[in-house]
Amino acid sequence: MELERILIADDHSLVRDGLRTVISGAFDSFELFEAASLEEVVAVIEREGSLDLVLLDLHMPGMNGMAGLERLRASYPTVPVAIVSASQEYGVARNALAAGASGFIPKSLRRSAIVDAIRRISAGEIFFPEDWSDAGTPAGPAEVDIMQRIDTLTPQQKVVLGFVVAGKLNKQIAFELDVSITTVKAHVSAILNKLNVYSRTQAVLLATRVHFEDVSSRPQKDQH
């Protein structure tokens, strides 16, 4: 996706200036908007109609932690929102992605790494610093909640989720299960609804967070 309309949302003018410089040196022919609070972000989106990317600080006026991000994702689900934060806490980043962010970009990253992150997000990926890990961290309330949501899926929906996690397209899943693409789409829609996420990518993020994997025994015909 071409990045033509980008909103930088941060209450520190120096941060906005820095991001503007980084973006200007990496992308051509784009229109840049700025905001210093959540209400200004909403005003820009309402006025402009659509944006290709919002770079959002979690600690601006009006954000109230993740509540501001959740508000944007609920009100404008088609607008990609990436968090750009000074936080180095894995839990904060993980919660932001679970709340619907398209990526988590630490402000401490090198300019080239920030540009790479923006490019990957614009291509539809979920960006997360590769050297961050919570290996050995026990499951907390968030993980338990995810597992409970996955448990609400029917056996066939879990199979479909496993294929989605494996990166299979709808037509590939339909072939594997010997069902119609329409049936697969219905399953995927139900999965997103039960997991309370906005996209397949977010579903994959949640599933991999609790190490969900494809089941080994798959039915060959769809069962309703």
Question: What can you see in these coordinates?
Answer:
The chain is of the alpha/beta class and 224 residues long. The protein folds into two domains: 5-122, Response regulator (Rossmann fold, 3-Layer(aba) Sandwich); 141-209, Winged helix-like DNA-binding domain superfamily/Winged helix DNA-binding domain (Arc Repressor Mutant, subunit A), CATH 1.10.10. Helix content is 50%, strand content 10%. It is built from ten helices and five strands. The chain has a five-stranded parallel beta sheet, sandwiched between helices. The longest helix has 15 residues, at 181-195. The two termini are 37 Å apart. Mean pLDDT is 83; it is low at 135-139 and 215-224.
What is this entry, summarized?
With 224 residues, the protein is α/β, with parallel strands linked by helices. The chain is 50% helix and 10% strand.
Shape call: globular
Query: Can you give the mean pLDDT?
Result: 83
Low-pLDDT runs of 5+ residues are 135-139, 215-224
Q: Proportion of β residues?
A: 5-15%
- Biggest sheet: strands side by side, in what order? 2-1-3-4-5
Order of helices and strands: EHEHEHEHEHHHHHH
Q: CATH topology of the largest domain, what is it called?
A: Rossmann fold
Q: Tally of extended strands?
A: 5
User: What is the CATH superfamily label of the largest domain?
Assistant: Response regulator
Distance between the termini: 37 Å
CATH architecture of the largest domain: 3-Layer(aba) Sandwich
Structural class: alpha/beta
Helix % is 40-55%
Number of domains: 2
Q: Major sheet, described briefly?
A: 5 strands, parallel
The assembly state of the depicted protein chains is: single chain
What radius of gyration results from the CA coordinates?
19 Å
Q: Provide a count of the helices.
A: 10
